[in-house]
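In the previous chapter we treated chains in isolation. Here, by contrast, the input contains four separate entities that must be folded as one system, with a combined length of 1428 residues.
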Amino acid sequence: MPGNTFGSFFKLTTFGESHGVAIGGIIDGCPAGIQLNLEAIQQELDRRRPGQSAIVTQRKEADEVIFLSGIFEGVTTGTPIAFEIKNQDAKSKDYSHIKDVYRPSHADFTYQKKYGHRDYRGGGRSSARETASRVVAGALAKQVLKNISFHAFTYSVGELSLKKTVEEIDFSLTEKSITRCPDPKLASKMEAYIKNVRKQGDTVGGVVACVIKNVPVGLGEPVFDKLHAELGKAMLSINAVKGFEIGSGFEGTKMLGSEHNDKIKKDETTNSNFSGGVQGGISNGMPIYFKVAFKPVATLMQDQKSIDIHQQEANVKGKGRHDPCVVPRAVPIVEAMAALVILDQLLLHQARKEFNL
Amino acid sequence: MPGNTFGSFFKLTTFGESHGVAIGGIIDGCPAGIQLNLEAIQQELDRRRPGQSAIVTQRKEADEVIFLSGIFEGVTTGTPIAFEIKNQDAKSKDYSHIKDVYRPSHADFTYQKKYGHRDYRGGGRSSARETASRVVAGALAKQVLKNISFHAFTYSVGELSLKKTVEEIDFSLTEKSITRCPDPKLASKMEAYIKNVRKQGDTVGGVVACVIKNVPVGLGEPVFDKLHAELGKAMLSINAVKGFEIGSGFEGTKMLGSEHNDKIKKDETTNSNFSGGVQGGISNGMPIYFKVAFKPVATLMQDQKSIDIHQQEANVKGKGRHDPCVVPRAVPIVEAMAALVILDQLLLHQARKEFNL
Amino acid sequence: MPGNTFGSFFKLTTFGESHGVAIGGIIDGCPAGIQLNLEAIQQELDRRRPGQSAIVTQRKEADEVIFLSGIFEGVTTGTPIAFEIKNQDAKSKDYSHIKDVYRPSHADFTYQKKYGHRDYRGGGRSSARETASRVVAGALAKQVLKNISFHAFTYSVGELSLKKTVEEIDFSLTEKSITRCPDPKLASKMEAYIKNVRKQGDTVGGVVACVIKNVPVGLGEPVFDKLHAELGKAMLSINAVKGFEIGSGFEGTKMLGSEHNDKIKKDETTNSNFSGGVQGGISNGMPIYFKVAFKPVATLMQDQKSIDIHQQEANVKGKGRHDPCVVPRAVPIVEAMAALVILDQLLLHQARKEFNL
Amino acid sequence: MPGNTFGSFFKLTTFGESHGVAIGGIIDGCPAGIQLNLEAIQQELDRRRPGQSAIVTQRKEADEVIFLSGIFEGVTTGTPIAFEIKNQDAKSKDYSHIKDVYRPSHADFTYQKKYGHRDYRGGGRSSARETASRVVAGALAKQVLKNISFHAFTYSVGELSLKKTVEEIDFSLTEKSITRCPDPKLASKMEAYIKNVRKQGDTVGGVVACVIKNVPVGLGEPVFDKLHAELGKAMLSINAVKGFEIGSGFEGTKMLGSEHNDKIKKDETTNSNFSGGVQGGISNGMPIYFKVAFKPVATLMQDQKSIDIHQQEANVKGKGRHDPCVVPRAVPIVEAMAALVILDQLLLHQARKEFNL
């Protein structure tokens, strides 16, 4: 309830500030007996890591995850799995100049007002660094969910937007580009555009889309914990996210019912998927498809006007090493949060399933 | 956790099927000592009622709310407030023809698969009738939140969309039109369009927007229970909702950071509000502004092809009394869910506030 | 969290004051497809009913339970099961004399201070009448848990205490006596004693013991939600309970480890059961055995000195119709709470079980 | 819900096995702005530490707590407080002999059956070593609860039992004896007795009592989360606990109502305290007084008969370094759990308090 725990059955609680000793978390509720591939978890974390390419922040963080409990002889024991990632490149000096200043469209002002006190170094707890812990837990969840696949990708950057349908996308291309857009031509344009934006000391937003395949029918808990409501909350909890839509989303509001209804075929699949794989809040076996809107990063390499904690005018200097566009690094975060939701819902569903004979 | 409870501190648990004895709920966690205006609660419910105008379903349900506990001499006692709304116009016969059939883009198929058994009369639990209970609880929450105002309105129906900014809208006009669009000219067009869609036995979607004013700074619990993540989940849990965006939303992804950042003025307000009143998951004192996408209603007055529970082809006949567009009746539901979120977060915040000296 | 919900997966939320319109509750999370025997539920409720014998309160409440949702054609649908029990014999006038007075060892004072306002009629929410809702939910839980049996019984009244071991008790005798003590001789003594205590306008306490048989191995969630911790909380939440012990309990503290350890036999049972069926917080397949201490009822048929809400001395008159000893009617309540705990834990355990291959 | 989290608002989630890398936890929901004395937290931990005296286990663990987040410049920031205690003296070899054997009255059998897999080294997660994390969180909670004092003490060891009333006890004597019994004469007898028991390779149980002073009126959430129900669950979740009673407890069941009722005086205190400071589940401002029963430690320095995981007879050898009586080291654990409950309830209560005008 105090906000640092996600999930009710496969539960992740995270901790840590961007410039503290470490970040990390505790996963509680992981089924016992799961053989883990710890290297694969580290690889997922590497997909999110700063400094991985020319279009992301050049901060250097090795971001090595260390497990402290819950795994014995490579296998989960059913007890809490704690992990930590030490903070290495925490140049606290970089932040002394913003100690008393509220950066525009950052959480400085709201944290100060809510808590009356904050760790001003690099955003502290409000830093997107926290999402590294989510990627660790999500990667672990993926291993529990062997047969379910998660395919997030860059759908748009600024005005540059994918024109393909979900069926036309070749997901094997996503990791081929540093933009994580699975359309090579568009990916090149995006890359050039992001570099140009950075040159101007500016930033730009974009959209990450995600397809989840092989989700069994029946996940999601009506009426308040509908599957897409849980996915929506999960995505909206990621830093910089301003919107979420499933299936036809906002565009679907312009359609007629006769166009929008997904007809059910004899094999129990549907011949269209405007619903995005969820009906009445419960998965229907079709691919789950949703989009997540990321605003442009608030930290600019330009000077900006603002105020300080004494309500005096202040200047925010363009300094530090930040992402010109958060979208490429957000792709593994979206997948991680999707995996956390699906596993949590699967366990919940399983609790009562056996009684339905 | 089984999905019929909303909120952690001001908690609403709802029950009831569209064609059972009654629907209703229990509100737990309401502060004691609140003088209630029960008539005002009934009035909110009337805003959602079927049969209220020419463009909604013509089902007749008096929808009278009765309180069973938790209120003594007109004042809340701090104990659970139970209420019920009897089902009156439950013409179960209307539904016998769909007993074994899965209606397209309805929850019939998923409920059948999840529970192995369902109340097929009119959607049972998956019916939007359940939202009446939310309106009761939301109306009560509004009375606790005296100084905070909730203004939901019809933003678009199909392609017909409001062109005004939030600041330009006169919220006193919302209830003047049966469409609940606060722009009289556009409202007339929407009304005509909806009538036309209905004549064709079809339905259409739309968008409800909502502005919340006077929310104190500091609500929302980082990192997973960010204020807009809670609002998003609340809205996505409403029947037929496919998308949620706050502030600049999906459009904002096309902007540059230098355009998008909300500059903070000396009085601690911002000179733009692309954030929609939330920074870092915490309210910043500016109006909270979000949009909710509703798909076209799945029940058509046209025959549709589908399958039955034996995986045989079946016909779904266009019958019954349904809404051609859910948006006008969704307006009070959006407000209700917003009020539940804000009150819940306010109570949570208050628990720790006093320690921040 | 606000205290009127029990369980995390099979969840009961109750409502209602002793002299309001009705009491009742919502059960959320009941598996679908369970064929219910509603008469058997009513029978359990009758075991708790006032006026059932000469040694309990002579209030007359029919206590008829009505189900409002979640059951279709006699079978659970997986949706919330709401129920209510109308209040009939609510002689509010009986309570006008205590409106402003704090009855000794009642909840009047604490409710007044906590909520600043209370329904003073007959204890309002603090009345043991609330436990009727628990009995309904517990009776339903028992039907889901077909193979598990719950045997609560009167272990002691005042100094009169059962001398038999658990193995020696014939549970079929429990309902043969209005005391619900399964030892006929002792039962007669208890009955006479309770009648005598009542004649003096006084009350007396006692102990209810409970044996649960056929609980599968593996229930309980270490480390905080140990099975006996959940049972303990459940029992301590019943009105008038002051103590809980499992297995050897307080007496076991005087034993040596070499006497107390339960030796495990080749068939995986143990040759003694000082643990009471739980080891490390997890059921071990042996009968679960625990005791619950009930204080003497606070309402006396004697005048007592106290104060009123203005801190002035006041007299509490001995009036009304109350139980001289709560223990006989507490027996079905203890069983009900035990069933709620076991079903909740079973569902939780089941969520992850399948993964343990 | 998976069992490793305690509290709903001031939440502690713990992790770690006795012979893994580390144990520790995350505290979520601590109010911001609390100036912490980290040394005092370490001192509490030292009260629980192995090897502290001649009558406890001689294992050597420095048990140094390290904080990883949530504290900035010595003050809590309102974000999660993570901490860890490295495992140092983890002689895993000591445990190889019990790898496949189920020790009598240990959790070996139940963990194996529940999880199908376990960390057999020294009890793994079921080891009482986990309680060190509770002491850290409890010590921190005590600092938030400045004005409330927690006085746990050894009430009995075997048959040796304190004869004083709560009012007669001088709590300043508790820490003067390694038994933590505040009666010097009795403490000496207990010490001698424990030493004698150990000489025989045996163990013995005992009772810890606890008095909490200055708890404000109004804590506890009826009806299921009564204050003493929460305390009971907290205590029963401690390793080796078999019973809990508040106020008059089991002895009180033998009293008449006319003896047991606590009369309320004009200053709103009561002239007796059989209720133990709680009425109707809510604190009444009197000292809260309860007792906790600890069974004799199951690990003996004697050979015992048992079975192994293949259901074959096996011998459990008396080896290792264990406590002959857990009670002296349990005293700070009882205080810690009590502090967690009181702070959690205080925060909950505070959330709604302001509305009660």
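Chain B touches chain D at residues 1, 8-9, 29, 31-34, 78-79, 144, 222, 347-348, 350-352, 354-357 (CB under 8 Å). The mean pLDDT of chain B is 93. Compare these points with the single-chain example from earlier in the chapter.
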